[in-house]
Design brief:
Elements (H helix, E strand, L loop, with lengths): L1 H27 L6 H11 L5 H19 L3 H20 L4 H24 L5 H15 L4
Length: 144
Amino acid sequence: MKRHINTAFFYGLILLFLFIDICCFAFLEQPLINTLLCFYIVLLLQSNSSIIQLTAAASGLLLEFFVFYGRFIPSLVIIIPLTLIGLLIRKICYPNKSLRYGLLTATIVAQTYLVEPYFFHSQRLMTYTIMKVFANILVMIPFP
């Protein structure tokens, strides 16, 4: 019974973070805060997370990016390398908070300067990227 409650809580967290991201996107009119991405990175670097949990969180990220951009391919360009690098870091290094922040920063920079210009022909200012990195680091701080 306790396992079912933990599983329901986990999937509820994914839906909650998805809802928060979509609401922030609706209010700010740009994807500035990515709580689900922060949760996915934390989950990716934890040693006790299962493949099913990672798949569920990645599916939530795919859905989120589809809502934001209307396409699945740009999200795959971000999620697949992020997952491979995260699993490699988890296998080689002892995961600490600085690795989380570094992986989050690299993901946001890659999304802003590689994926968005290539797929959507949009150029973002450096101040937007810095603001997005710091906002997401602030979101990631409470995660254990």
